[in-house]
Records
---
Amino acid sequence: MEIFPRGYSGIWLQIASVWFLVALMQNFRGSLSTSNYLIGLGSYDITGPAADVNMMGYANTEQIASGVHFRLRARAFIVAEPQGSRVVYVNLDACMASQIVTIKVIERLKARYGGLYTEQNVAISGIHTHAGPGGYLQYVVYIVTSLGFVRQSFDVIVDGIEKSIIQAHENLRPGSIFVNNGELLDAGVNRSPSSYLNNPAEERSKYKYDVDKEMTLIKFVDDEWGAVGSFNWFATHGTSMSRTNSLISGDNKGAAARFMEDWFEKKGRVENLDSQHANKSGTAKIPRRVSSIVPSINENRNEAMEVAASFKSSQGQPATRFSSVAKRVRNSLRLADRPQFVSAFCQTNCGDVSPNVLGAFCIDTGLPCDFNQSTCNGKNEQCYGRGPGYPDEFESTRIIGDRQFKKAVELFNKATEQLKGKVGYRHAYVNFSNLEVAQGNDVVKTCPAAMGFAFAAGTTDGPGAFDFKQGDDKGNAFWRLVRDFLKTPNQEQVNCQRPKPILLDTGEMDKPYAWAPAILPVQILRIGQLVILSVPGGGNIFVVFSFFLQRKAFDTNKSYIQRWHLVQ
Ligand SMILES: *[C@@H]1O[C@H](CO)[C@@H](O)[C@H](O)[C@H]1NC(C)=O
Ligand SMILES: *[C@@H]1O[C@H](CO)[C@@H](O)[C@H](O)[C@H]1NC(C)=O
Ligand SMILES: *[C@@H]1O[C@H](CO)[C@@H](O)[C@H](O)[C@H]1NC(C)=O
């Protein structure tokens, strides 16, 4: 079962985007000035405990870390107007950001830099890999399967974020930022296409696809050194690695980031040697192991463990060399002082976007699963999505990573539109349990959080256990009884959540402490015509805002393109 209920990004992002538009109207009517930013990038290891810790994402108690596929990093950028405001964005190779991690990071940044970096202007986001250690969030729902809080997981993420920001801060130098976007068609499919069809035809007709296929990339160019990095946003789940994988991995986005950083490094070397012979792509680097979903090929475990163990640890190694400005004179022979290239592949509205692009099949019969409920003979446990490298999940990870990497390189090479204008930010704590949301001509209200019966069925990326089914709007008596041991939802909550039957009334459970958040920070960063909206725990709505550039109309629908699915 997956931690995020389907439809999750839909409603949240819709709520957030309404709030966000209002905020924009009120506060971002700044004057356009010619851009002259200070830019700084940083990157630091956040791999965490590689054994005996439950992994975050599939909520599978049996998925316990036992090695490393490849290491995880925090990658950060800072953009500042000289004598003006600044914003920080950190992308974690982790399942999601965490409010308690953010609080700790901000505390440390305040101790170090005073009021320069605060909860107002620091946004932290996760790539949604389902193969990282868990236990670093404060709500019960997110740490049930890790049997509570895991200090080691938490500490390494806090340290890594802090160090990546320190690096970015020390690297701050004059530079420009360019933006580009384009479609990437073969790295994500809708894993619940039948649910998407529940959207009104009129709404669906506005979109070319049933998921958002757009990648948006920003390219950082140092005045002296040229390109020093890029961040891009594209929606696809970090579920190329399966729910039975036990090796820590950044999944497809972590892989893509490494491919791009290696590519740039190699390209620099090639250009430097004036040689055309080296391979352009570094994507063959990550070794492969065979999926354990298919029992017949689950052999050679020891060999796989040896391969995993052969990776050299990079913990504690900064990605960027620190050096004084004086030393960094323009001198092509002194490339060693060049800041290392940082490339992040960030998550965005990935709600129901699966990287398992071949579709979902029954592992017993090999036939496609039931279209409406993603079941095989009525059972959800047998229905799995297949990645392009099926049955090898490592190969699927590599291929989906490679596709994102190649698109990013293309956008990177052709990015010519420069970001110009004010740097700004907005931040607010929003109580999501009682918000009014416009839906067409109606106004509807959100309720305290609750998980439906269908939630427990998981998704085709990671089916749940027992007899739960996707699309279940009835529930069953046995599980209702079990549920009532924990908390019986009151009639108001039942009505509010209808037609979704409540399995766990998480928003109203607070023993021993809160099971799910009610109040969430909503964050907006603005760099010229670019706006990044972030709600920790979710992805980011990422829009290229065009009130200034008139490049394209601002489209709030973007954020809930996938569908609203009532029954989960
Ligand atoms: C370069 O790429 C080719 C084909 O993709 C591959 O056969 C070859 O082994 C690669 N060479 C190196 C040095 O990686
Ligand atoms: C899925 O459900 C819809 C609506 O209930 C129904 O019309 C359709 O025939 C079903 N499709 C399949 C393949 O079962
Ligand atoms: C959030 O809003 C709900 C409903 O209005 C209210 O009951 C709850 O106390 C609020 N939560 C907090 C922490 O203020």
---
Amino acid sequence: MKEKKSFRVALLLSYLVLVAAGKGARTIQQWENTSQIPTYQQFKKTIMMEDGDIYDCIDVNLQPAFNHPLLKDHTIQMEPTSFPIGLNIKSSFPHVVSQAHLSIIECPRGMVPILRNGRRDQISAHFIDQAINKDAQLEEAGMKYFDDLYGVQATINVYEPKVKKDSGDLSQTGIQIDNGPKGHMDSINACYSVSPSFYGDTFARFHVGWRDGVQNKSCIDHDCPGFVQVSHNVGLGGRVKPVSVYNGPQYVIHILIFKDPKTHNWWLAYGKDKTPVGYWPSSLFTSLKDKGNFSYTGGRASGPTASSDSPQIGSGHFASEGYGKAAFIKDIQIIDNNNKLVTPNEEKAISGSSDLRKYTIGNYGVDDHGVHMYYGGPGNFV
Ligand SMILES: *[C@@H]1O[C@H](CO)[C@@H](O)[C@H](O)[C@H]1NC(C)=O
Ligand SMILES: *[C@@H]1O[C@H](CO)[C@@H](O)[C@H](O)[C@H]1NC(C)=O
Ligand SMILES: *[C@@H]1O[C@H](CO)[C@@H](O)[C@H](O)[C@H]1NC(C)=O
């Protein structure tokens, strides 16, 4: 009973924050109906970003992940036991690029920011599942890698590819690691994505996702329990800023996914200094428990019309346009069974595009720093 009361107070507070921020009556009404409020035990602080995103700061030990039946007795791991060997080797890339930033939310230490998404609540889980499932239409331009691996890193040039507003499609670029038999594949991924149907806007947003091959269920961010966040200030689902401008300044994000050799959890770290965001507990998975045996690094369009009326991938320009115009991915390395970042074995890598009329790969190359390439294209946008 007491807990309910403090919950109401918190609600009232967040209501006041919204009113103070000058939001209209519609927002207020939405939050008066308590049955629509996420079922977090408590949130101590609500933060509204300039762009309208709203985050609740939630006790790190009460975050959504721990509602997962397999994580009932999970002991949170606040940092990786070690990092892979060979990090921070300088790239040979000849161009000057700046870092884009993930959304930084000032939650107190001991808490994690959880994005509210009013629009997403209206979209059925089935739809989300379809959009990130293989059933939907799918186009790709990137590098596939077929070998055992324990992580992948890449530096990704961030753009905001055009996606038609009510198409249900999305365009994303990132890293995916899989293992398991067809139809029951476990999978994890981290990417930036433009998906107007989920967010009601056309911004590049940063996401983590995964798929449980046994349950045949997909999920993104904290929408359903699984991903354990440790960072008190990275907002999953938040905007990546700034984004690159065609023929103008170029921005990148560094993403690293690696398996903790002691705890076997799959960690996500970002940025030049490899700041840990959180992890996918190894206990969520069957086939991905020990290692991955496939990875994909590149761009992807998926959704109901991704092939019939394709969105852009990358900058929306073909790879042949080169630096500043075509999007690039560089420093792609994989982590081998010695926990070491290495350049992918060329014989086990395949780069390509699912439809060369819409998307291309260019200037593909391999050196000591890994694989680099330009990728993407206009899709059906002309
Ligand atoms: C609150 O929302 C739920 C689900 O949308 C609905 O079933 C219920 O009738 C609403 N309650 C009130 C008081 O509006
Ligand atoms: C990965 O391993 C699974 C068995 O766990 C196998 O069924 C699948 O074909 C392998 N995938 C690749 C890409 O080699
Ligand atoms: C997984 O779920 C999809 C629907 O989301 C369905 O089409 C597919 O057949 C399922 N696969 C298995 C192996 O159950």
